[in-house]
Amino acid sequence: MRQLPPVRRSTWFLLAAFVAVLVVYLLVKPATPASGTQDDTPAPRATPRAERTPKPTPTPTAAATPTPSPTREATPTPTPTVASPSPTPTPSPSASAGTASPRASVPPPVPQPDSTPG
Fold first, then answer.
1. 35, HSE (Cβ side, Cα atoms, 13 Å)
2. Is-contact 100 108, C-beta < 8 A?
3. Could you give the CA distance from residue 62 to residue 2 in angstroms, rounded to a whole number?
4. Any transmembrane segments, and where (predicted)?
5. Percentage of residues in the chain with pLDDT exceeding 90?
6. CA 114 to CA 110: how far, in whole Å?
7. Tens of pLDDT along 12-39?
8. With pLDDT > 70 as the criterion, what percentage of the chain qualifies?
9. In angstroms, rounded to a whole number, what is the distance separating the alpha carbons of residues 49 and 90?
10. Residue 78 near residue 114 (C-beta atoms within 8 A)
């Protein structure tokens, strides 16, 4: 019987690299039983996908989009009014009387017009 030649060092390195990659793959990949469970349920998954496709209609989505836009534009107007009174009391006692007077004069006219129409 003929004897085989010795295994080269490079062959052992390739074998070790393959085993290392295999071990890392087995540790990182998802559990195998989950994929086995998924094989049993492809038929039910296909049915909901078919149902989901006809249900969404682009028309309601387009109609819903324009409605919020005007509302958002109207909202910023009252926001500055609410923000104006807050800085008014703080600067009056802290700042000089000359500086507080112009700031105090500006906010009161703004709330009065907003209160009247609303």
1. 4
2. no
3. 81
4. 12-28
5. 18
6. 7
7. 999 999 999 999 999 998 766 655 555 5
8. 25
9. 60
10. yes
CA distances from 43 to 4, 31, 35, 51, 70 (A): 54, 22, 15, 13, 45
User: Which residues, given as ranges, of the chain have pLDDT below 50?
Assistant: none
Give which of 113, 81, 107, 70 is closest to 92, Cα–Cα.
107
Gap between the Cα atoms of 37 and 35, Å rounded:
5
Question: Residue 1: its pLDDT value, please?
Answer: 82
Res 93: pLDDT: 56
* Residue 71 contacts residue 93 (beta carbons within 8 Å): no
In angstroms, the Cα distances linking 7 to 2, 11, 17, 18, 80 are: 15, 7, 16, 16, 82
Q: Are 91 and 100 in contact (CB under 8 A)?
A: yes
**Tokens 């209609």 sit at which residue?**
57
